[in-house]
Amino acid sequence: MINWRRLTEQDFPLLREWLRQPHVARWWNHETSAEAVERDFGAAARGEEPSEDLLVFLDDQPVGLVQRIRYGDYPDYRKELAPILDVPGAAVCIDYLIGDPRRTGIGLGPRVIGAIVEATWEDHPDSPSVVVPVSAANRASWRALEKAGLRRVAEGELDPDNPVDGRDHYIYLIDRPSVASS
């Protein structure tokens, strides 16, 4: 069973370990000192910023992290996307990682993404969609999005998370399911 809870400061040592894993470090490009993790994740863990950093569990074992934001809370990010895709402020974005390398390549990523997307409709009832930019070079990530039901709707140039990557990005989207009228 996949579930999650808010990341806490007590989780930072585990997060640091994950961020050091080569398969994570390649795409997340974060400093991994205790001070850097506190700087980058502390405000969200304390509820001082609007992003949701969620520690993901599989059968009660921590396996990954999902960051979930509303574009309206991060206007600069929304503005960066505007030339490629008009994103509503109420739309949600996710970023994700599977921390344990033994848990990669077995279909867990699409399951986590699918579960988070499903929960988003309840957690953010005004959100019309989930919109996820991903580096075109990160095939595993965009394939996981596709397997979770998101579709590629745009391509364009964005600043990469990792400076070694090019600016080419794919934009994936899934709309809130419509409620059938009875």
From TrEMBL:
Q: Does the keyword Transferase apply?
A: yes
Q: Which residues form a coiled coil?
A: none
Q: Which PROSITE patterns match?
A: GNAT
Keyword Nucleotidyltransferase appears in the UniProt entry: no
GO terms, molecular function: N-acyltransferase activity
State the pathway, as annotated in the record.
Siderophore biosynthesis; mycobactin biosynthesis
Q: Which residues form the signal peptide?
A: none
Report keywords, A-Z. Antibiotic resistance, Transferase
Looking up Pfam families in the UniProt record yields:
Acetyltransf_8 (PF13523)
Q: InterPro entries per the record?
A: Acyl_CoA_acyltransferase, Acyltransferase_MbtK/IucB-like, GNAT_dom
Q: What's the domain of life for this entry?
A: Bacteria
- Which biological process, per GO, is one annotated for this protein? siderophore biosynthetic process
Record's function text: Acyltransferase required for the direct transfer of medium- to long-chain fatty acyl moieties from a carrier protein (MbtL) on to the epsilon-amino group of lysine residue in the mycobactin core.
Name it. Lysine N-acyltransferase MbtK
Species this protein is from? Prauserella marina
